[in-house]
Amino acid sequence: MLMRTDPFREFDRLAQQFFGSQAPGTWSRPTPMPMDAYRHGDEYVVSFDLPGISPDAIELDVERNVLTVKAERRPLELGDDVEVQVAERPLGAFSRQLFLGDTLDADNIQANYEAGVLTLKIPVAEQAKPRKISITATDSGDRKEINA
């Protein structure tokens, strides 16, 4: 099972509504990146939206069943003769943590980055997959093996 937690997400949303955008140079916690997650057969698929972030600015780490995705959107190198008219896209570090249940195989995660979307495929651990169990029945002295 895949679990996520972000106890301060609602607080951040309310603070941004009340105070507006933060001033440059002020401290804030990393902004979570939007994601979708679903199970497809024997694997979980998780997609993160990371538009405008180069692949070398993305880090993936797994430690003690915690998957951490970190990304950094860096400012564009525009030159001295450029005057910026609008700058609404957030810059800086973004991170997201997912707690991977014991039923997932954290050693075999596959990652692909295409068109600004990071897609992870996390397989279900072999011991967590459904399996058939043989039943031995004993009727009137005869032993029969039944596959359930």
UniProtKB/TrEMBL annotation:
- Signal peptide residues are none
Tell me which Pfam families the record gives: HSP20 (PF00011)
What SUPFAM superfamilies does this protein's entry cite?
A: HSP20-like chaperones (SSF49764)
Q: Any idea where the SHSP domain is?
A: 26-138
What InterPro entries does the database record attribute to this sequence? A-crystallin/Hsp20_dom, HSP20-like_chaperone, Small_HSP
User: What family is it from?
Assistant: Belongs to the small heat shock protein (HSP20) family.
Name of the protein described by the UniProt record? HSP20 family protein
Taxonomic placement: Bacteria, Bacillati, Actinomycetota, Actinomycetes, Propionibacteriales
